[in-house]
Amino acid sequence: MERATTSLEDMLARHPDCAMPHAVLDGEQRRIPVRPINTRPGGGICASISEMAAYMRFHLDPVAGRGGLRLSPAAAAELTTPQVYIDRSEFTEVGDRHYGFGFNVVHYRGARRIDHGGGWSGYNCDLRLLPDHGSGVMVLTNGHDPGCAALTNTALDHLLGLEPLPWLDRLRGIRRLFRDTPPKHRAAREAVRHRDTRPSHALADYAHEYAHPAYGTVRIARDGDTLRWQGIDLDRPMAHRHYDVFEIAAEPTVWFENRTVQFATGVEGDIESLAVSLEPQVAPIVFRRLPPPEMATRDFLEPLTGAYRLGNIVFRIALDPVGQLTFTRNEAATERLLPRHGSIFGFADSDFFHIEFRRNAAGAVDALLSHEPTGTYVVERDDSVQPDAPPSRQTQ
Questions:
Q1: pTM of the predicted structure, to 2 decimals
Q2: Pairing outcome for strands 111-120 and 306-310
Q3: CATH number of the domain residue 330 falls in
Q4: pLDDT in tens, 55-112
Q5: Which of 287, 307, 298 is nearest to 368 (CA)?
Q6: Domain shared by 305 and 355, yes or no
């Protein structure tokens, strides 16, 4: 598979004669832009027809292998052994569906079948193998709404020597249902919206960068009297739905529709995060607000350092060797403070404790506010405390 790649951009650069993506928009088949595939762990293999045919031949008998590549009998069996139950197909010829390692595992009209589909914006494929019969079929299309199953199932019927089933008629009804019902769904969605509500903050307060360790960074931008979603390779306008919930404008060519974004406000009244449903089987994905870059600079952090006292409790704020702010309470272990926003810092192991630095009228830092579940406490700067001296045991 010398031409195969996991990058659409690389495929276009090396093989400009490739099929370009298309989708049905407003009832017409149109060419759409090529969108990069950034979900590398999810696969996203771009390959030629001849290479995919070689891939299929290998998996028909992976123990024998091809071109010097082979699998052990145990590994080959494990690939197509049911690991997770998916559901029962609506078609009796298929029955229960399971997932192995990289393959769906079913029985089709009494024959063991392994398969896997693949799709991206403007591309689709449907690969189905009959290992016990030494044959298989794959349909590839540069269309967004392909209808591959009618072709692959009909081809399998011929390979099995069986009378072909009316797959086109069966699937036409399902396709018609998906085409005709969206207006009803949109009307129902609109009916449950709470009208005459407003966001709890000014739009500018939502306009920040938010991050998730797996999905990366999303930027919410102010765009006149509305917001824009800029992330996961999309730049789409957002409309206010109700309260602190906004809707991202649909982008049907990437299956991105009906996405709501819910902003969350912290106990101090600031926007802290947003949640958006990206995976149907898991809870909404939470992106946490990123601190502005200046909060990591020495010019910003150094004026915050020093000792702060509340009775016999002394808080020491310092910079560690890598320039990060640290917090030590009396003789307890030193912890790093994580920048949040404004002059607020948090702790890695708690969402309920925050430190906020207060400035006086002259702009000098004169106290810190310790936001805790039981209240907010003013801890005033005490320049009489020696930086490395142990705190006084004297109580107030």
A1: 0.75
A2: unpaired
A3: 2.40.128.50
A4: 999 999 999 988 788 999 999 999 999 999 999 999 999 989 999 998 999 999 999 9
A5: 307
A6: yes
